[in-house]
Structures are given as structure tokens and as C-alpha cells.
Amino acid sequence: MAGLTLLFWQDLAVALDPAALRGIGWATLGTMIFSWGNMASRKNSSLGVSPLTANAWGMGMGALTLLALLVIREQPLVAPEGSAYWTALAYLAVVGSVVGFTTYLLLVERIGSALAGYATVLFPIVALTASTLFEGYVWTASAAMGVVLAGVGNIVMFRNRERP
Length: 164
What we know:
Blueprint: H1 2-7, H2 9-14, H3 18-46, H4 51-72, H5 83-111, H6 113-119, H7 123-135, H8 141-158
């Protein structure tokens, strides 16, 4: 927690406006739902449901839920034009969702949801690295220290606990 707080300190300290607080609330809710998903994945694993099957069902239900929300809110379903959109969508759907999430579900199946959850601490660091390379993110001393603390936290969690 300390590492992630330092990593995002600039955004948290500077932008404590209602929109930022709403964003933090949504992120907290998303984290809680993600944890619930970890527990569901663990249960699926114990019932013999493969991660690929669970992922397919989850994505199908998510797509149907979004479609239902469009219908309820009377929003039109509009297909965007342009190859950049469709290329990005295909990448996110295949690599970001199917491959990425199925791989994570396999990790949950193999090492358990508690340990797999600690690996997610690295997600913001990976995102910031991509942002540095492609979007010009500027690192601060507190962000660098946050990365170090997040890494140390993961090392502590994954070290062999059977030593005397």
C-alpha cells in the first residue's frame, strides 16, 4: 500500500477534487469486485472449470450485460470507423483480455487467489512503464520509491516462509 501510495502521490495530493475522489471510489469498488472474482475463480477451479471456459463465460456475460445497459438506456450501438480503433480493440480483446486474464486465472488455479492477488501490485508499474515509453510519463522521486516499495512488498510475500 505504501508503495502504491507513493507511486500515485502526485495525483492523490494534487487532485483531491470531487472527480478525483469519485475515481478513487470507483477504483476501490473495482478492487473489491476483482477480489470477489478471485474467490469465484478459486471456486471454479475446485469444481473443475477450466480458466479458459470460465473466462469465456465471464466475457460473454459481461458483453450481454453491456448490451442490456445500452437497450435500457436507449443508447444506439454504433460501430466506429477507422482501422486504428479496430486494431486496438482486437489487441485488447485477444492479448489484454483472453490471453492476459486466462493467464491470470491459471495463476490463481496454480498458486491460489491470495498469492496471485499480490502479483496485481505490479500491474500499475507495468502500466507506468508503458506510459513512460509511449506517452511521456515523467518519473518523480516518490514514484520511483513507490516502485521499490511495491517490489519489496512482493518479495516479502513470495519468500519461503518455512524458514525457522
